[in-house]
Each structure stands twice: as C-alpha cells, then as structure tokens.
Amino acid sequence: MRTQVVIIGGGPSGLLLGQLLHAHGIETVLLERRTRDYVLGRIRAGVLEAGFVGLLEEAGVAGRLHREGFRHAGTQIAFDGGMFHIDFEGLTGTPVVVYGQTEVTRDLYDAREKVGARTEFEVDHVEIHGADGDAPHVTYVQGGREHKIACDFIAGCDGFHGVSRQAIPLGVRREYEKIYPFGWLGILSETPPVHDELIYANSARGFALCSMRNEKLSRYYIQCALSDSPEDWSDTAFWQELKRRVPEEIAEKLVTGPSIEKSIAPLRSFVTEPMRWGRLFLCGDAAHIVPPTGAKGLNTAASDVHYLHTGLRAFYEASEHEGLDRYSEKALARIWKAERFSWWFSSLLHQYPDQSEFDLKMQQADIAFLRDNAAQQKAFAENYVGLPY
Ligand code: APR
Ligand code: PHB
Hints:
Blueprint: E1 5-8, H1 12-23, E2 28-31, H2 36-40, E3 47-48, H3 50-58, H4 63-68, E4 70-72, E5 74-79, E6 82-87, H5 88-92, E7 96-98, H6 101-114, E8 118-120, E9 124-129, E10 137-142, E11 145-150, E12 153-156, E13 174-189, E14 199-202, E15 208-214, E16 217-224, H7 235-245, H8 248-253, E17 259-273, E18 276-277, E19 280-282, E20 288-289, H9 297-318, H10 322-325, H11 327-349, H12 357-372, H13 374-385
Helix pairs in contact: 1-6, 1-9, 9-11, 12-13
The structure holds adenosine-5-diphosphoribose and P-hydroxybenzoic acid (PHB).
The site of adenosine-5-diphosphoribose has 26 residues, from helix 1 and helix 9.
C-alpha cells in the first residue's frame, strides 16, 4: 500500500491535520491504536483559540462548534476573597470559544468518515522505517496481520506516549521537562455552571478552577497531592473543598451534584527538539506537553498543524521545501511562548509545597499586579486568546 502522508495517532492533531490535507487534495492514511469510542471517551479541556477555530473552519468542520460553542469574552481570576475580570475582547478584540475537546474530536472523526479518508483503528506495533531517507514506510499489526504503507511523509501525532518521538535518535533529540509537585482532581457533573465565565482561583488551600462543557454540564478542578487518587475524594469532600477555595459569593451559588467522571491529572511541561527528522514530523502532544492551566494543549497542537499542513501543501502544490524545512523552527518558536505562559500562570495560582514565605509574597504581588495593571492584563489576554501563528 502507498499513500502521500501517514498520520500516526487519531487525536485532535492527527484528525485536524488529515482533514486540512484532504481539503487540499493530499491523501492520508491515519493509524489509531484505540477504537474511535475509546478516543471519544477522553475528557479534556476545550478552550479554543481563534486560530484553532479558523483551522476548523478551513477544514469545513466548524458548523456544530458555531452552533453549540460558547463564546467567552473574558475570564475571572479569584484571589484574596474577591474576583477580578480580564476582558479578552476589550483588550485584544478576540474572544475564546469553550467547546469540549471530545466534541472537536467527534466532529473531526465524522468529517473524516464523510470524505472517505482511510482510518485504521486498533493498530499495534506501529513502526517507522526510513524516516531519514527518501522512501519512508510504516508497518503495523492489525487483526494479527502485519501491514506496510509506503509514503512520502509521516506525521507523528501519537501523543506523549506514542512511538514517533522515540523514532528520532537520542543523539539527535534534546528534551526539556518540568514535573509539577501537585495534580488536578477534576470532576464532571450534570449541574449548571456556577458562572458564565471560567473562574481560575488562587487560594491558600490550593488552586481551583470552575469551568463548563455546556449550560447543563460543569467541569471543576482542585489542586491535589500527587499521592492522592480519585477514590480518596468523595463527591461531598470535593464540593466542600471547592467551596473553600472560591469566593463566598461563588460558593453560595454553586450547584452540586453527583460526579459522572472523576480523575486526577499530573502536571508537566515538556518539549522535545527538533520536531522534524527527515520525512518524520512531530505534531501536538507527541512533541510537547503543557500544564492545563493555560488551556494550551489543544491550541499548541493546532498551531503545529497549521505550520505542517501549509508546509506539506507548498511541497505538493509548488515543489517548495522551505515550509517543511522551517517547520520545527516555526512550531517551536510559538510552543516555547505557550510553555512559558502555561508555566507562569501555573506558578501564579498554585500552592507549591516548598514555597517560602517570600515566594508566597511574590506570588501575591504578581496576582495583585495582574489585577491592578492594564498592560499586564493585556499581555495576559494576548497569551490566553492565542499568540499569532
Ligand atoms: N499507534 C497509533 N496511535 C497511537 C499510538 C501508536 N503507537 N500511540 C498513541 N496513539 C494515539 C492515541 O490513542 C491517541 O488517540 O494517538 C492519539 C494521540 O492523541 P492525543 O494524546 O490527544 O494528542 P494530540 O492529538 O496531539 O492532541 C493534543 O489532546 O490529549 C490532549 O492534552 C492534550 O489537549 C491536548 C491535545
Ligand atoms: C476545562 O474546561 O477542562 C479546562 C478549562 C480551562 C483550563 C483547563 C481545563 O485552563
């Protein structure tokens, strides 16, 4: 079998890349380790930058997003018993759209099926061959049989635990990592959101976040110890703790209910360089991870897809190589800025086990400066709504 681009991984990165390439007549085969339903069962953040929305529109997959997505003109930051608003739209002219990643992924799968692009589910033992030559191919096992796909290019969209990054020799790769000393305990509840915007809370007891999926489905998080497990937290204990970390006016309005999903996510910053090795291009979580604080995971995957699909289009349409040759440089330039923002925003809001009294004073002054200074709010807003591609 042969195709133009083999995409390894059927998460948002691989699906969005496949849809954009298809829209420009470039053939792909997508290999996904799990089933479609398994992929759609993942609960992930869904705060979309305008750039992401633009790519979905270009891919012809933004219809439901525009019907069901929630336009957020700003966000609330809770601190010291009160709350202050950061006006994204007023400061940058740009809102964000809240629309669950699960829905984005569902829309992309539906679109891929509709155009008849080939997707292979439940593949095992995916291996990349000849990426550093001119005739790469991929092998995999499915249903007990080995398969081989010759191709021009391979897009490694297989996430942090995939095989693509490992295909780049250790002597070529440089990896940068920071592990945070806490996790996020998140629940999903069929209750109305407590506020019409997200609330990011810094409290002496630890970070909290009030978010949502729609007007009847809320998503809440509290910072927790890495040693915790979801079973350690009853719903009652979760709601009690969340109420102690948000301003009183919010705690009083909070509608509680049974959790329909409860999980703990560790926080990590990670980047691998370069993101290209010959005919192999890494995209999304395969190349970088951010703590979820700034909601940048999905959005940095989108900017990678932007650079990669435009590079591939230029190659096929105009035999032009510069886009692919500069892919890693361009993608990393934006990724490191998103890593910085996510790290800084995490340092602003969480309680760190080893922080000194002085560190605490610096954190409080940092938040107070954000609350009181228009220039700092504009810088925050520009990062949150998404820096230019
Ligand atoms: N072969 C085939 N598929 C694989 C393999 C493999 N060896 N390893 C992993 N996969 C699949 C996973 O099952 C998953 O569906 O690759 C996909 C990777 O998807 P994500 O991990 O979602 O990564 P990405 O598409 O880059 O999206 C980044 O999704 O996970 C969130 O927080 C992340 O918001 C960010 C966004
Ligand atoms: C979420 O709704 O899951 C969410 C929103 C914003 C974040 C992180 C998670 O920064």
